[in-house]
Every structure is written in C-alpha cells, then in structure tokens.
Predict the 3D structure of the following.
Amino acid sequence: MSSVVTNDLSFSVHGDTLSNVQEFTYLGNILTDSRSLDSKVEHRIKAASSAFGRLTKRVFLDHNLAIPTKVAVYKAVCVSVMLYSCET
C-alpha cells in the first residue's frame, strides 16, 4: 500500500494565499511536513540547556548552597523545562 502526498492544495485567508512551509510553530509546538519530532526534541534540549546555563553561576557554582538544594533546583527548573508538554 503506497500513499502519494501532493502539495497542490492552496488556502487563502481574507484573500491572502497561505504559502506551504516545511515547519512552523503552533501553540508552542514545532510542526513539520515530515511529522518528525526531531525539531521539537532539539528545541526542548536547547531550552533546558539554556535554563541550566542561566543557573550555573547563581546556583550550581555557589558554594554556600547545599547539594540537595542544587539538585532540587535542577529538577524543578531544568528537568521540567526539558519535559514541558511531553506525554507518555
């Protein structure tokens, strides 16, 4: 069984024709024409890395904070940013 996808469809809104794109963001999710989740996963990893980077100097390199506090901050911020909008 094979399926053929054609891009002959065109849509217009208030007289403006919408263009076909390979990916776009809708409600915070990256949607692609290949239905791949790679860009979404990459975006989540970058966001978590950015959050970790912003906290490095103030939290993770602060010698006055206990390790359990640092772990709690990591779980609350970095892990939750990475897993945001993920379902099982």
Q: What stands out?
A: Residues 42 and 63 are 32 Å apart (CA to CA). Residues 38-60 form the longest helix (23 residues). The helical segments are 38-60, 67-83.
